[in-house]
UniProtKB/TrEMBL annotation:
Signal peptide, first to last residue: 1-30
Keywords of the record: Membrane, Signal, Transmembrane, Transmembrane helix
InterPro entries from the UniProt entry: Spore_YpjB
Membrane spanning residue stretches: 246-265
Keyword Transmembrane helix in record: yes
Domain of life: Bacteria
Protein name per its UniProtKB record: Sporulation protein YpjB
Source species: Ammoniphilus oxalaticus
Length: 275
């Protein structure tokens, strides 16, 4: 009789534990769902604001664009994301928004500079809201052509041509860099910066090492090819890396439930044989 009582105690405990786990998981799921909805709404608002800013700047409604940028900047500081973003990428993103504000706050704003900053902010926000198909990847063809032109100039030992093609390509890289940094590791961005720094030194130096310059350009071509065509991180890996409470609760519940079920089964078998 005593062993039967123990058996029923374990069974009741398992039922209570299972019910508790489902309740906790349901509560966390509801909270996570609400959080995801808020995050999605914020992302959509950021996306809309960034598009409006570009349109307003192109229409030379700079005061109105400045107000929209203030809203975007305020919302950006409260935005949340499940993606892992490096401190360096966040710093670049913040600098991009600050530079945009400065461009619009000038007493006599430079229209070209204002448009450039507005588009840079648009590309940055799009990289956050559309990580799988960001706008910056659509520049692959243009980027490749520019790098190819630099390689062509270096192959012919034309320093002036290299300077001009480098200036054009580096302007595009600087525009895309904050958005690219959201998808790449800091070491990749640092490597690209180092390559550009070396090429720039050679393009403006007196004694050009053309062989080293061509090697650096070849390396730049390979790195940028990986940037634009590289594989996205596995979705399951992103979910697991997010330290989701649901994943943790489910895993712990499964382990405990399996262990307790095994104990109950062993005790039940022992009771049967003893009876």
């Amino acid at each position: 009789m005593k062993k039967k009582w123990k058996q029923w105690t374990i069974i009741i405990f398992l039922a209570i534990f299972s019910s508790f786990s489902q309740t906790v998981a349901g509560t966390v799921t509801a909270a996570e769902s609400e959080g995801r909805n808020n995050q999605q709404n914020n992302m959509e608002t950021l996306d809309r604001l960034s598009q409006e800013i570009v349109t307003l700047v192109e229409q030379e409604q700079l005061a109105h664009a400045k107000g929209k940028l203030e809203q975007l900047g305020e919302l950006f500081t409260h935005i949340g994301t499940e993606r892992r973003i490096s401190i360096e990428a966040l710093e670049l993103a913040t600098q991009t928004i600050v530079q945009g504000k400065k461009a619009l706050a000038d007493v006599t704003p430079d229209k070209k500079e204002a448009i450039l900053r507005a588009k840079q902010i648009r590309i940055l926000v799009d990289a956050l809201s559309h990580p799988n198909q960001p706008i910056w990847k659509s520049y692959h063809s243009t980027y490749s052509q520019q790098v190819g032109e630099m390689m062509n100039q270096a192959g012919r030992s034309r320093q002036e041509g290299l300077r001009k093609s480098l200036q054009l390509n580096y302007q595009l890289y600087s525009t895309l860099k904050p958005a690219i940094a959201l998808n790449q590791t800091p070491s990749t961005i640092q490597m690209m910066d180092s390559i550009y720094q070396f090429i720039n030194q050679q393009a403006h130096g007196q004694d050009v090492d053309w062989e080293a310059t061509q090697n650096s350009l070849q390396q730049l071509q390979e790195v940028t090819g990986n940037l634009f065509l590289g594989k996205e991180q596995n979705t399951l890996a992103l979910y697991m890396n997010s330290n989701s409470p649901i994943a943790m609760i489910s895993m712990i519940s499964l382990i405990l439930f399996t262990a307790l079920s095994y104990v109950a089964w062993r005790m039940y078998r022992g009771t049967r044989f003893q009876m």
